[in-house]
Structures are given as C-alpha cells and as structure tokens.
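User: Structure please.
Assistant: Input sequence and predicted structure:
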Amino acid sequence: MQHAFRNSIRIEILDDCTMHIGSDRHGNLIELGCVGDLGSIFIIHAMRARAKYLR
C-alpha cells in the first residue's frame, strides 16, 4: 500500500476521501482510499483498482 501511495499515477478527490491509484511492488494497480487529519494521512481502503478509476 505504501508503494502504491508513494507512486500514485492518478488521484481523485471525493467528498470524504481521496482515491489514489498506483501499483504495488508486483505491478498490480490498486486503489487506496485515504483521509487526512492534522497533517497525517490514513489509508482506510485498499483493493484491486476498479475500472471506474482507470478511465
């Protein structure tokens, strides 16, 4: 997850979180749902990237 976050190829800002799309260490694209609080970022969602985020 950290690798995908640091190497995001796409970022979508949603109402309550930010979706980051990036690849894991094996090259698989994954999506990460992230929220921030007081300068920290928390990954609250991680899964294989869905088609709607790959367009």
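The chain has one domain: 2-53.
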